[in-house]
Design brief:
rod-shaped; 6 helices; mainly alpha; about 150 residues
């Protein structure tokens, strides 16, 4: 065998080895893409489940507000957070802006443990503020909560 033949055989073996390696890398890439697609699908399903939970919560709270089962302030705060968590545009949030406005207007009022720490006089003052704000926004907030009934985002 001549040197040229040996070099030619060696070149062919190198090309074959590189082709096999390229095929191996291609298969690894395909597996990685399939795993990524599966993860994306799983994330999408989780996001859909979360969105369903939020929509159900919105329905329950909106119905409770209409049935006087919670204060307008509490309902507005809860609905405001839920609506904003959906990532809706300003235009989509517009019909429910009164909920957000009431929530913002009453955001300074302490809740939970902070409320318990207040004196009776402070609690009465905050209750008075809350009642005045609720009276100011009542019609708009109730209208917004009615619009939310049977609405899915």
């Amino acid at each position: 065998m001549s040197v040229l033949s040996i070099l030619l055989v060696l070149a062919v073996l190198i090309v074959i080895a590189l082709a096999v390696y390229a095929l191996y890398l291609h298969m690894q890439l395909r597996k990685q893409e399939q795993r990524r697609e599966a993860q994306l699908e799983e994330l999408k399903q989780e996001a859909d489940k979360q969105r369903d939970r939020i929509n159900k919560s919105i329905q329950v709270i909106a119905a409770a507000m209409g049935g006087d089962q919670m204060t307008l302030t509490e309902g507005a705060m809860r609905l405001s957070v839920l609506l904003q968590s959906l990532g809706l545009s300003e235009q989509e949030l517009e019909p429910y802006s009164s909920l957000i406005k009431l929530a913002e207007a009453t955001a300074h009022i302490p809740i939970l443990e902070d409320w318990k720490k207040l004196s009776t006089k402070q609690k009465l003052a905050f209750d008075k503020q809350r009642a005045e704000l609720e009276a100011q926004y009542e019609d708009l907030v109730l209208d917004s909560s009615k619009k939310l009934l049977n609405k899915t985002f």
